[in-house]
Amino acid sequence: MTGWTEYLLAWACFLGAHMIPALPGPRGWLVARLGRRGYLAGFSLLSIGLLYWLIVAAGRAPYVHLWDQPLWSRWLVNIAMPLAILVGALGAGLSGLVAAFALWAGAHLVANGDLAHAILFGGMGVFALSGLARSGLPRAFRVTWRRVLLAVVIWAALLHLHPLVIGVSPLPL
Predict the structure, then answer these.
(1) pTM exceeds 0.70
(2) Residues 26 and 107 placed together within one structural domain of the fold
(3) I need a surface site. Which of 105, 109, 140, 150 has the fewest CB within 10 A?
(4) Do 17 and 44 share a structural domain?
């Protein structure tokens, strides 16, 4: 299955995986059976897997050109991503992660000028901004050398694995 059908199915699964557990019944049931840590670990792994599928499905969808991708837009992504990762790693609570996703989505939206990726990053931006509207911006940051080191390692891993995992180099050169 490829094309728009796979892309729509990936979106439906991603949104369903985030909306259903947000309801009090399913989340409570899952936490009662898996424990809080087990639930969070399982939800995190599922979210990462579905996000990856969504990104790959966007790449397989038919290409519909919307705007050109100037070189500066890749620089924007390469400047925004370390900041997004720092916010996610240092922000206290879930709002740091949601703010990081908003930065990620906004920068990638500018740098990707086709319909499927505009829907992907625009949709993720709306999803993240709605989360920020509910939770607010991070109120505190936990700056420790371990968190900063973790952010640097995550950034380096994403930068170097992007061509292998996503299929496109993020470097502007």
Answers:
(1) yes
(2) no
(3) 140
(4) yes
